[in-house]
Amino acid sequence: MTENIWAAAFDIVRSLREAGYEAVIVGGAVRDRIMGLTADDVDVATSALPEQVKNVFTKTADVGIAHGTVLVIHPLAPVEVTTFRTEGTYSDHRRPDSVKYVTSLKEDLRRRDFTMNAIALREDGSLYDPFGGREDIRSGIIRAVGDPDGRFGEDALRMIRAVRFAAKTGFRIESATMGAIGRHAESIRKVSVERIKMELDKVWKSGRAGLAMELFHQTGLAARLPLMDSSRSASDLPVWRKFGEPDESVEGWALLSLLAGSPEGNPYKLSNAEKRTVRQIREAFDIRISRPYDEMDLYRLPAHALKTGWKFAWLTGKTGLPEPEEIDRRKAQLPVRSMRELDVTGNELIAWTGEKGGPWVKKWLGKIEEAVVMGRIPNQSDDIKGWFINGFNSER
């Protein structure tokens, strides 16, 4: 897919240039290419107006037409094409009040957040780099384009993005840029938690969550972000430094909620699936810090939750190093994986007792389920019947 999207982008640039327009590849894809990383998205910027872009290509979609973006549906991969533009004031610190199309590539790059993201790649492979982004990449520096106070005053989310890029790359945030984040930290409260969540999802997956949390505290952002109480920095930072690169970003939300003492991380509007996973991880953690997992724990909770709960118990110094292969092995040895695999049904319980159906059936199926999982009886109808009848009669 990566090769296809690059080929599609270069082909689109070529077609626009042949039609008489300036066109280049811009954004994070260029940064990642310089750094030798793969890019998931490749964007094109052009002097052509949106309607002119649509006239050049036969298949397009108006994905962001209000801001000058047209999706060109290329046979190899869809690519977003955006007209060169400048942006008006950001009265809400989140989005521009207006955009203005321009014919200057330099003016288009000037509006971008950091020098590493303000580099254009031409069709012949050469770079247009008016703000020194390539040198900053080589030096491992994250630097705002132009005046950092202006950049963060326009869009406060850029402060979170600076930290996220530091976590992704291991680069240092340049001192003037760092200072401006501290001065504008309070304005992060004006940014929707949905936008912040999208950035933090990437922070958790970066492999450097500890660095990110340290920067959040140093800049004062932590004091303004939900669940990041700066007073806990001394005890929490060592945990985040050992967090590593998780399999899923939800692990970051689970650890944040655990350290904050919040049940689900609701301030960030997690999805229902994410909230469920956070609860499962927290449950697994609570079990593991008090005792080893038993077979019912392995049966009830997903392997990912069990492994992550154990990992968190280790991160917080409450257990030894987690052994994920042990969980996989023991889960594979469980006699059943769900109640549907029991060699008995509710109708059989009714038939064996001669009683009418009722809540007792569900209760006894649960007891049988636990007895089978824990190895107290085999998952065989005759064995279950004898065990059940004895227990049922003893309760009458």
From TrEMBL:
Coiled coil: none annotated. Residues 24-143 form the Poly A polymerase head domain. Keywords: Hydrolase, Magnesium, Metal-binding, Nucleotide-binding, Nucleotidyltransferase, RNA-binding, Transferase, tRNA processing. Residues 248-384 form the CCA-adding enzyme C-terminal domain. InterPro entries: Bact_CCA-adding_enz_type3_sf, CCA-adding_enz_C, NT_sf, PolA_pol_head_dom, PolyA_RNA-bd. Residues 170-228 form the tRNA nucleotidyltransferase/poly(A) polymerase RNA and SrmB- binding domain. Its EC number is 2.7.7.72, 3.1.3.-, 3.1.4.-. Its cofactor is Mg(2+). It comes from the Bacteria. Transmembrane segments: none annotated. One of its GO terms (molecular function) is hydrolase activity. It holds the Pfam family PolyA_pol. Belongs to the tRNA nucleotidyltransferase/poly(A) polymerase family. PANTHER family: CCA TRNA NUCLEOTIDYLTRANSFERASE 1, MITOCHONDRIAL. This is tRNA nucleotidyltransferase (CCA-adding enzyme).
